[in-house]
Amino acid sequence: MNNTWTKRWDDRYKSEEFAYGEKPNNYLKEQIEKLKTGAILFPAEGEGRNAIFASKLGWQVSAFDISEEGRNKALLLAKNNNVSIDYQVGELETLDFEENQFDAIALIYAHFPAMIKSKIHKQLDKLLKKDGIIIFEAFSKNHLEYVTKNEKVGGPKDIESLFSIEEIKADFPDYEIIELEEKEIELNEGLFHNGTGSVIRFVGRKV
């Protein structure tokens, strides 16, 4: 991943205000509260709002991102909420996670660069235990028309970085699909997710 990509996220996260707020994503909150606690991984976790929420519920939380500034904000948020999380900085293949380590993985607006996003999904699959759960919410390919009309809703502006139901099925083939849909939703998350958008939502159990 190039320095321009890293700098983009460091610049977004270095201000005092939280880019996407301090509250958890609604879909993550709704789904994680249905699960028995265990070990959970948050890829591309940014400033930590979802990881901290999971930790407060009693999960053993790991997270990673390429942004040091994101990690700094996440650790501050964890301290303010009297919880602790394991937060690593770097690209996935350089980090010390183990196969079959996690009971759940939460991919919440984890928009990796288009050329590596499927590869990362397949790497993450190896880290999830049998019967483990994926919780996923990210912008759909149809979101492009929404962000063109309203930049405040956020999300990538290239269609290759956005998701389709077919891509999710291809990236996570060995899963029982509990839920998989494209949906129009209203976002109100901090400074950068505000307005109507189109998302893919997926909950799957590894078989």
Automatic annotation (TrEMBL):
GO terms for biological process: methylation. It comes from Flavobacterium ginsengiterrae. It comes from the Bacteria. InterPro entries: Methyltransf_11 (IPR013216), SAM-dependent_MTases_sf (IPR029063). Keywords: Methyltransferase, Transferase. The keyword Lipoprotein does not apply. The keyword Cytoplasm does not apply. Residues 46-136 form the Methyltransferase type domain. The lineage of its organism: Bacteria, Pseudomonadati, Bacteroidota, Flavobacteriia, Flavobacteriales. This is Class I SAM-dependent methyltransferase. It holds the Pfam family Methyltransf_11. GO terms for molecular function: methyltransferase activity.
